[in-house]
Amino acid sequence: MSNGNLEIRAISGHTGGTPGGGEYRQPDGSTHAGASRDYDVCKLIDTTTCIGCKACEVACVEWNGYEFRETTFDNTYQTMPETAWNFWNLIKFNEHQRADGTIQWLMRKDQCMHCEEPGCLIACPADGAIVQYTNGIVDFNQANCIGCQYCVTGCPFNIPKFNEATKKVYKCTLCSDRVGAGLEPACIKSCPTGCLHFGSKEDMKFEAAKRVKQLHDNGHADAGIYNPGDPDERTSADGIKSTSPGSIGGTHVIYVLNDAKHPENYGGLPPAPSVPFFVKMWKGPLKWLGGIGLVAGVFGVFMHYIRFGPKEVDKVEEVKR
Amino acid sequence: MGLSRREFFKVGTGSAAALLLGFDARPVLAQAKELKIARTTETRSTCPYCSVSCGVIIHTLGDKAKNVTTQVVHVEGDPDHPINRGTLCPKGASLFQEIKNERRLMRPQVRRPGSTQWEDISWDKAIDEIARHVKKTRDETFVDTDANGKTVNRCEGIAFNGGCTDTNEFNYLIVKTMRSLGVCYMENQARV
Questions:
Q1: Cross-strand pairs, B109
Q2: Domains in chain B, please, with CATH?
Q3: Nearest CA of chain B to the CA of A44: how many Å?
Q4: DSSP class of residue A29?
Q5: A4-282 sits in which CATH class?
Q6: Which ipTM score applies to this complex?
Q7: Is the pTM of this model over 0.80?
Q8: To 5 degrees, how large is the angle CA A274–CA A117–CA A36?
Q9: What is the CATH number of domain A284-320?
Q10: A189:B77 CB<8 A
């Protein structure tokens, strides 16, 4: 079994390079020389052809070996309100009323977006709990998870979910075990309408653009690609530059939306997802400031010793005691 | 576990050397999760639910040696099957649950006329009773000749419905059996 596609690009908790390797991607987006990025995998979800059959939901639970959990009924076909620690893939059903009074029934497969600049990984303080492979997959390693849930704060899509029983956080792995062996993720394989595609990021962007053009030609003027922050201007229709602060730099799960100008209609897809400011501050400047403060403190104590010498107990005070 | 002083130094220096020389953690982490179907036997089958008859692959763990009880670990779509080409619907995607499920029916059961309860029955007794019912129904409803006096030899009291997973061989035998009984009402779920 080849693990060629699963070399680590970034790993949580480390300030330096990847242990034993130099392919660490800094939180600010710069990469060390020699970073291998020749084959980025990507999942393309064409929401315009999704029929909401939920085969991907079942395939996901089956492959990952979780028990089928209790579902909730809230007057829609949606299985439950949000994804759960053992339910990583959820079709969100949304009824959206257009300005002219007509109803759109929008379905969107909700799961981890596998960001290029993952907020969860930036926020994670545990060594090796979150790993970004060179092919773009962001994976959690529960063995190293300390259950602090900072990744939940760092995620702009509300994806990582905490399990109270094991005190660990879980999320979609993009079937890193399958992809590492050359297979496609379980959800992709099951999809009967073919609205899910899997391949290299370049190919998926091409496929998405082709589909969007087809939709435009058929009179769906607002159709577009959801791939926020991607450096490729053609596919980041939202206009968010990849250099803007907190940008997630594109995702390894991209959508074709019928109404790309209003992604929030698709069950709360953020129009401009970004890693929260405090997470960036805390893991960036504040970390450095803290380090400088620590060194300055030790230096100050040393200088105090040089200037004033060791502390001498006052004779008068000693008598008082 | 007792650790002697000598062993402690051995392990200690070994680890230190590995750290100094740059122990590569990547392969270790990359293999954190193993592909659960990497060493399985693949058996092709047909989804039993609807008449579309999607092809599935049943992944079984264990090399089927004499003393080994194999275990089904996963079921997914068959990419080589012309109907579904690897895809499955939510019901088909849950086929593993049909194989390994504590609520699965493992023996024949019968619900007597008027009863609300299912009761266990042995295969021998079940086949015996079915044969008796077939004989009785056939004898009661057999039509030798129609209104015009033509010989028809029909058994109108019995109908047969096949399933989508029935094989060619099974269907051949069933048609022969039913025709020999004079059954005309024959249908298959795969045509619904």
A1: B120
A2: 40-99 (2.20.25.90), 109-191 (no CATH)
A3: 16
A4: S
A5: alpha beta
A6: 0.75
A7: no
A8: 160
A9: 1.20.5
A10: yes
